[in-house]
Structures are given as structure tokens and as C-alpha cells.
Automatic annotation (TrEMBL):
Gene: wbbE
Keyword Protein biosynthesis: no
InterPro entries: Glyco_trans_2-like, Glycosyltransf_2, Nucleotide-diphossugar_trans
Residues of the Glycosyltransferase 2-like domain: 10-162
GO molecular function, one term: glycosyltransferase activity
Family to which this protein belongs: Belongs to the glycosyltransferase 2 family.
Keywords assigned by UniProt, alphabetized: Glycosyltransferase, Membrane, Plasmid, Transferase, Transmembrane, Transmembrane helix
PANTHER family from the UniProt entry: GLYCOSYLTRANSFERASE (PTHR43685), GLYCOSYLTRANSFERASE EPSE-RELATED (PTHR43685:SF5)
Protein name listed in UniProt: N-acetylmannosamine transferase
Annotated transmembrane regions: 244-267
Length: 274
């Protein structure tokens, strides 16, 4: 297969321009350059963002799509999915730092059998050189299936997949305000599309300080969205009723912890140092 591919990036109003700059530079430094970088403006591009894009110049083939009104991330990702010019799509987040060999290592793994590929991420707070915690996900498909009943079996900012496969399973669910990537992965699995992960850190994932982390991963709003997502999995018979009650119980206990205790749990229990 050829190695023409689209990088899809959704920028929201919470994405800082300087983080966006670092993210784009990490694409410039790729040993395998993307054929296009499709940036969807979901209300996030400021004058500073446009200045950064202009400074990149011809280093990347950037195409901008502006959404007329603010949409969910799922809607924005779906717009990018349909608009991508190439059959291979790589997801990138506007505040993460890609390792320079991400694409050259991941994209050749896609073939007639493997339809989506991902990798591990290293979480960091402010600077890439912060001591990071690695989010490891299972590599083999049988383990990915088992893991996916309880948590997303991929690190979304690392995934690459075939556009036609994503469209054939319905694309991103535009009604979801959380977990649209997780939902897409489960539909790949339900339709027999093989996924694998490479046991290498390919993206440095920005989580921010303790308060920002809690805002992203804790609280009542996120809990409601997670319950809604897993209720959907239950209705689709992807998980059992027992799975559902076990998952919801754990989510309630974790997401409603106070900020300081949530962070202790997150770093000391949920994640392990490499």
C-alpha cells in the first residue's frame, strides 16, 4: 500500500495556541510527512493560531475547515472523516507532542488484515521532559476485545485507520459528548475489523496540572457521559448487564472523589510508571 495519509486535528476553544504550535511542529518533524493536515476549527482558532499556521508555511500541507456553529467533538471528527482526501487517517490532538517516528512506525502496520493501529502514550503535565506516566494498552486483538468491555483499548491520539472502514461502521457518533472514539473502536470490533497496538510510546499526552486533570477525568458531568456511553454498549449487547453495573459502580466511586484524592488514585493506582 502507498503511504499517503491525512492527519485529522480538531481545535476547540480550550486548546491553547502555544500548545497547538508545539503539536504542529511535532508533525513537521515526522520522518514520514503527512500528505495533508486537516484542521477542523470547532470554535478554537484565534489570530495567534492563524499566525502559527502561517509560520509553518510550506512545511506542512494544511487545509482548514471551519464549522459554522460549535459542535460536539464527535460531530467535528465526523466532518474531518468525510472531508479527508486520503484513505488512511491519523488522529492528532492539538496539544500533544508526536514522536518523530510515529507515522513511519504505525502506518505500515495497516494492511488487509489490520484496519486500525495505535500505540502507547506518555502523559505529562507541562513540559515534555516531565517524568511521564505511560498509558499501556493491550497489543493483540484478543486482549483488545477483552479490555474494551471496561475501558477504551486504544489511546485515541495515536490511532491510524482506514477511512472506508470508519465510514462503513457509521463514523463517529455525533450524539455523544464524550467517548466518541471509544464508541468507534467498539464498532470496529463488532464488525470484525482487526485492531492492534504497538508497545511503544508514540505520543506525549498533555494532561495539565492537577486541577486540569480533574476537570478532564473527574466530576459529575463526565460520570453522566460515561454512564450514557456504557448504557449504549449495553443496549448494543457489547457488554452484559453484570458488566454494566460493575463499570458504573467503579465509575461512581472514582469520578466523584474530591480533586486531591482523585489525583492520588489516578497516579498511584490507575497508572503505573514505566
Amino acid at each position: 500500500m502507498g503511504h499517503q495519509f491525512t492527519v485529522c486535528m480538531v481545535v476547540t476553544r480550550n486548546d491553547a495556541a502555544e500548545h497547538f504550535n508545539v503539536a504542529l511542529l511535532s508533525l513537521v518533524c515526522q520522518s514520514m510527512k503527512p500528505s495533508e493536515v486537516l484542521i477542523v476549527d470547532n470554535g478554537g482558532l484565534t489570530d495567534r493560531h492563524y499566525e502559527i499556521i502561517a509560520n509553518i508555511g510550506d512545511e506542512l500541507s494544511i487545509r482548514l475547515l471551519r464549522i459554522a456553529h460549535l459542535s460536539s467533538v464527535g460531530q467535528a471528527r465526523n466532518i474531518a472523516l468525510h472531508a479527508a482526501r486520503y484513505q488512511v487517517i491519523a488522529v492528532a490532538d492539538p496539544d500533544d507532542i508526536n514522536e518523530p517516528d510515529r507515522f513511519i512506525k504505525l502506518i505500515p502496520e495497516l494492511n488487509d488484515s489490520v484496519r486500525m493501529v495505535g500505540a502507547w502514550v506518555r502523559e505529562f503535565s507541562r513540559e515534555k521532559n516531565d517524568r511521564g506516566i505511560v498509558r499501556r494498552v493491550p497489543c493483540e486483538f484478543v486482549d483488545i476485545i477483552r479490555y474494551s468491555r471496561f475501558r477504551s483499548p486504544v489511546n485515541n491520539p495515536t490511532i491510524c485507520y482506514f477511512k472506508n472502514d470508519a465510514l462503513s461502521v457509521g463514523g463517529y457518533n455525533t450524539s455523544l459528548h464524550f467517548g466518541e472514539d471509544y464508541d468507534l473502536v467498539t464498532r470496529f470490533i463488532r464488525n470484525g475489523k482487526i485492531i492492534r497496538n504497538i508497545p511503544i510510546v508514540m505520543v506525549n499526552f498533555r494532561i495539565g496540572d492537577a486541577k486540569k486533570l480533574y476537570k478532564k477525568r473527574g466530576g459529575l458531568f463526565l460520570l453522566k457521559q460515561e454512564i450514557n456511553l456504557h448504557r449504549r454498549f449495553l443496549e448494543n449487547r457489547y457488554i452484559s448487564l453484570l458488566d454494566f453495573f460493575m463499570i458504573v459502580t467503579i465509575k461512581i466511586l472514582v469520578r466523584l472523589l474530591p480533586c486531591w484524592l482523585f489525583n492520588v488514585f489516578y497516579f498511584k493506582v490507575l497508572r503505573k510508571h514505566e
